[in-house]
Each structure stands twice: as C-alpha cells, then as structure tokens.
Design goal:
This protein is 50% helix and 19% strand. By secondary structure, it is an alpha/beta fold. It folds into 2 domains: 49-118 and 239-341, D-Maltodextrin-Binding Protein, domain 2 (3-Layer(aba) Sandwich); 129-220, Periplasmic binding protein-like II (D-Maltodextrin-Binding Protein, domain 2), CATH 3.40.190. The strands form 2 sheets. Strands 1, 2, 3, 4, 10, 11 and 12 form a 7-stranded mixed β-sheet that branches. Helix 12 crosses helix 17. It is globular, with a radius of gyration of 27 Å. The N and C termini lie far apart (71 Å).
Length: 344
C-alpha cells in the first residue's frame, strides 16, 4: 500500500517520541500565532517633516532622540533646510508631508495647485528677535531717515514693520537695506548701517560689540511673529490621523520642557552641536507652543487675528515685491483633537 512521506514521518515521530511530536506541533502553532499577531499590529505612520534651524523648531529633536514618536505610532524623518523659504517651497511641492515654518513665510508661499494649511503653533517670539542700533539711536522713533538692515520679505522684515507700527513710524520713513543677518552685522561694524534686525544670541552680542543698544524686542508687544506646523490642504484631509499623532508628540515635548527642561535642552543641544545653557537661553525668548497657547490660537481666534494683522503689515511696505497668498487655510481639527486626547 502507498504511504505518503508526510504520513510515514508522522508515524515515525509518534512511534519513537510521541511527546516530541506534541512539542513540534506546539512550536508551529505558537509561531503561527506570533505571525498572526504581528500582522495585526498597526504599522507606524510615516511622515517627512521639514524645518530650518530655530530653537522653537529644534526642540522636536527631543522626540527623535527618545521614544516619543514610536509611542505615538509614528516614523518621522526630519529634513533640515538652510532657510524657511526653501522649507515652505518643498512642502508646497509635495517633497514634504508638513513643515515647521513661520506664519509670515507661509503667507508668501509660491503659487501651487494646493492651499497651504496651518495646523499647529510651535511658538511665538517673546524677546528672541529685535532691533540693534548704534548708541546715538535710543528708540524706534529715531529710525526715521535711518538705514536699517533687514532682508526684504523675510521674518526680519516683519519684525521691523511690527516695531515701526507699534511706535507710529511709517514704513517708508526708513531706508531699508536688503541684507542677510551676517552682512547686516558686518555693515553695522563698519558704520554702513544705523541699525539692523537680528535674533538672539546675535542681537545682544552685536549690541555689545558695536557699543550700541537693543532698542526693540518682540517682548514689547503681542507679537505676530508666530511659528508653527503647516501642510497642504490635501494632506490635512487625507493624513488627519497621522498629523494628530504628530501634534500629540509635540505636546509630549512641551510637557517634557515644562517638567524636565535640563534633560530636554541637553539632549537637543547635543544633537545640534550646541551648548545646552546657550540653547536654553535662546529658547527662553519664546512663548512655547503648549496646549494653552494652541487653544488660544485656534479656539480663541488669536491666529486669525494675527493673519489679518500680518496682511496689513505686508501691504504697508510693498518694497518686498511679493504677492500674499489669499488661500491660506487654518485647520483646527488636528490640534483640537490632540488637545482633547493628550494626557501626561
């Protein structure tokens, strides 16, 4: 009679070692269960996020260095750019899923098929940006007729316009030198500029170096120098859950800064090759984007008011030669869902 190889092997196993056959069957059953459970586990959501160097953005490196992203079911690739304009451009062209960018830069995003969408606030400048001037200039009012360095269309330009508006100085009353931070510092040293818009620590360092003074910082007003997380409209709709998880991870970082700041700043500074104390000092000039601030921005209407004010400032000085996006969307769903769900 024909006996299959599998039947013959089973017979041998049973006759020689019936207990061993049971062990083998248990092994295969266990392996099958493990594979089944693994297949049922949800895969981490993958996100590619762009950012340029800024303390208000850089703290996300703490989530990258710890298990925060993993606990939130995310695989996040952080892509660094040299400037905010390139970051925004890459996001709008689809090379990034989202980007940490300034609200002012998003309003000036290049034309694209989709609409830019703001979904979270990471920080508001509260002293980290300002204007440094030579010693004979003691106030913003003294800038009339003076030559001030600020790159046109950038956040530095916004800071200048915000300061001028606060002190009642018309934008056109100031001669604007369209230069970068580094060139502005050099020209201040050479007396080719009367003042310049800079950010910390360069702001205070330059004031000391030229024997001048800081005549304005964003702490002097309820600043509209607002940074946050932006994406495209289609992404905000199709990846809503993943973006909410990213916001939850951000709130985890904010909680860590509030409860164990030294650890956060040490880890972030190490990844950036900076001094932890210096990084902590730079971050201290920001109003951090925790749950309270985001609730105020999205639920309390502060963000929409800021966009209206930014539009007025933009129109007050056409020397930038750029067009303002009129299709910027504010999508509160990811951040408000995260606020309801987040727990320490």
């Amino acid at each position: 009679m024909f006996v299959s190889q599998r039947t013959r092997l089973s017979h041998v196993l049973k006759s020689r070692n019936p207990r061993g056959a049971g062990v083998i069957l248990l092994f295969w059953a266990t392996l099958g269960l493990v594979l089944l459970l693994a297949a049922c586990q949800p895969r981490p959501a993958s996100l590619k996020i762009g950012l340029n160097s800024w303390p208000g953005f850089d703290v996300i490196a703490y989530a990258e260095a710890t298990d925060i992203f993993e606990r939130r079911g995310l695989e996040v690739e952080l892509v660094r750019f040299d400037n905010a304009q390139d970051t925004t451009r890459a996001m709008m062209r689809g090379a990034l899923d989202a980007a940490f960018v300034n609200l002012w830069d998003v309003l000036q995003a290049d034309p694209a098929e989709d609409s830019p969408t703001y979904i979270m606030v990471t920080n508001v400048s509260n002293g980290s940006d300002g204007i440094v001037a030579h010693k004979e200039i003691s106030s913003v009012e003294d800038l009339g007729g003076r030559r001030v360095g600020a790159k046109l269309g950038t956040v530095n330009h916004l800071i200048l316009l915000e300061a001028l508006q606060l002190h009642g100085v018309p934008a056109q009353a100031v001669e604007l030198a369209d230069v970068s931070n580094e060139i502005a510092v050099t020209q201040l040293r050479d007396d080719r500029l009367d003042a310049a818009v800079l950010w910390e620590p360069l702001l205070s360092q330059t004031a000391d170096e030229i024997g001048g003074q800081v005549i304005y910082t964003t702490r002097d007003t309820d600043s509209v120098v607002i940074d946050g997380l932006a994406t495209r409209g289609e992404m905000a709709r199709s990846r809503r859950t993943a973006l909410k998880q990213l916001v939850l991870a951000w709130f985890d970082v904010m909680h860590a800064i509030e409860t164990q700041p030294e650890e956060v700043f040490e880890i972030v500074a190490e990844r950036l090759g900076q001094d932890p104390a210096a990084f902590a000092e730079d971050y201290a000039g920001l109003e951090k984007g925790n749950i309270a601030l985001n609730r105020e921005m999205f639920e309390g209407g502060r963000l929409k008011d800021a966009i209206a004010q930014l539009t007025r400032l933009f129109e007050a000085d056409p020397r930038h030669g750029r067009l303002l996006r009129e299709d910027l969307q504010v999508d509160a769903a990811p951040v408000m869902s995260a606020i309801e769900e987040w727990q320490p």
